[in-house]
Amino acid sequence: MRIDIAISGDHVNADLVKGKTVIVVDTLRATTVIITSLVNGAKSVVPVSTVEEALSIKKRMENAVLGGERKAKKIEGFDFSNSPLEYSKGAISGKNVILTTTNGTKAISRSKDGNRVLIGALVNAKAAARKAHGFSEDIIIVNSGTDGKFTMDDFITGGAIVEEILAMGKAELTDIAKTALLIYRSHRDIRSYVKEAAHFRILEDLKLDDDIDFCLQKDIFAIVPEFDHGVIKLTEGQISLL
Predict the structure, then answer these.
(1) Are 12 and 105 contacting, i.e. CB atoms less than 8 angstroms apart?
(2) 60 burial level (CB within 10 Å; 0-12, 13-18, 19+)
(3) DSSP string computed for the chain
(4) Cβ 125 vs Cβ 31: under 8 Å
(5) What is the pLDDT of residues 130-144, one digit of tens each?
(6) What cofactor does this protein call for (predicted)?
(7) Residue 239 pLDDT > 70
(8) Within 13 Å, how many C-alpha atoms sit on residue 240's CB side?
(9) CA angle 169, 233, 76 (to 5 degrees)
């Protein structure tokens, strides 16, 4: 088994992910939102790249709500922003969440040619590692990044997932995967590292400290959503409410 990391969604193409298990990470905040939504009883999450696509799908999908952001702010006319705290059981249980974000949903879409596409974050790092390891094939962790660029928050999450995979058995690591692992092992206080990230400061300036605190919790959920044919759901046997 070989583990690699893509530093942003813009670096992903079909050849990079073909034949591999993909774990898409957007810790601050899209993949955390997706995981939280399904934990709290959403039927599905439909990730899309544009606002126009989101509005079009809503017209033909039952029990649909709109969520997402542009420049870290709620999109006008949408039901929810990109804050995981808004996706409570009372708000989204039984709903189909149509989600569009600047980076995360694009990274998911670009990863579609992998053997399977799992949704990961710090909140489910151990579960994502366990599920990916169970397929016994090469793994690539796709960091969503910010505007096509490297992000520290996704990188340290990748390191956390790599460490959890290695706890289950040996694996060959690419140089970038080794570096992410070293970063994680050197910064067990994840916030002390992530606070230096540009995207962290953007959220902090917007007074989204509660979102940051929530997203930087490790292993609070044991589910691993999977993206398939344009929709993210829990696979059979996973329990949404812990």
Answers:
(1) no
(2) exposed
(3) -EEEEESSGGG--HHHHTTSEEEEE-TTTHHHHHHHHHHTT-SEEEEES-HHHHHHHHHHSTTEEEEEEETTEEPTT-SB-S-GGG--HHHHTTPEEEEE-SSHHHHHHHTTTSSEEEEE-GGGHHHHHHHHHTT-S-EEEEE--BTTB--HHHHHHHHHHHHHHHTTS--EE-HHHHHHHHHHHH-SSHHHHHTTSHHHHHHHHTT-HHHHHHHT--S------EEETTEEEPPTT--S--
(4) no
(5) 999 999 999 999 999
(6) Mg(2+)
(7) no
(8) 23
(9) 120
Rounded distance, CA 224 to CA 133, Å? Answer: 12
Q: How confident is the model at residue 237 (pLDDT cuts 50, 70, 90)?
A: low
Tokens of 202: 């953007």
Question: Is the pTM higher than 0.85?
Answer: yes
State both tokens at 90: 């009372």
User: What's the token pair of residue 42?
Assistant: 């959403």
Structure tokens at 218: 């490790």
Yes or no: say if 3 and 171 are a contact pair by the CB < 8 Å rule. yes
Give the residue among 161, 137, 134, 144 at the shortest CA–CA distance from 235. Answer: 134
Owner of token pair 């959220």? 203
Read off the amino acid at residue 140: I
Sorted by where each starts, the structural domains of the chain and their CATH numbers stand as 2-228 (3.90.1560.10)
CB 141 within 8 A of CB 3: yes
